[in-house]
């Protein structure tokens, strides 16, 4: 399966409207759906936030020049919310999944979908 299938499958669930797959350090975009490509400083901020969330905690999470309120940041998952939409970023052994869910989607449903895909990739040593 190509890398492109992963963001496409997330979008196909109807719970995610944009998704991207980056290298674990955030220095390369492997695949994207919905024209979802973060600025270099935004993906770097997320990649660093897994190991040290202090910057995200003090300044918020930024994706496509939109500031999201940080809900969670640990060594695996980063969640952000802006009004009724949100961002989910999950780090695997070799990659970072970043997904956006739109207004009208329950955050928990979107989060479960992205986390399950991350578990699958981890199971494949990615």
TrEMBL record:
SUPFAM superfamilies: Profilin (actin-binding protein) (SSF55770). It is found in: Cytoplasm, Cytoskeleton. The keyword Transcription regulation does not apply. Keywords: Actin-binding, Cytoplasm, Cytoskeleton. PROSITE patterns: PROFILIN. Gene3D superfamilies: Dynein light chain 2a, cytoplasmic. Pfam families: Profilin. Occurs in many kinds of cells as a complex with monomeric actin in a 1:1 ratio. Binds to actin and affects the structure of the cytoskeleton. At high concentrations, profilin prevents the polymerization of actin, whereas it enhances it at low concentrations. Belongs to the profilin family. This is Profilin. It comes from [Candida] anglica.
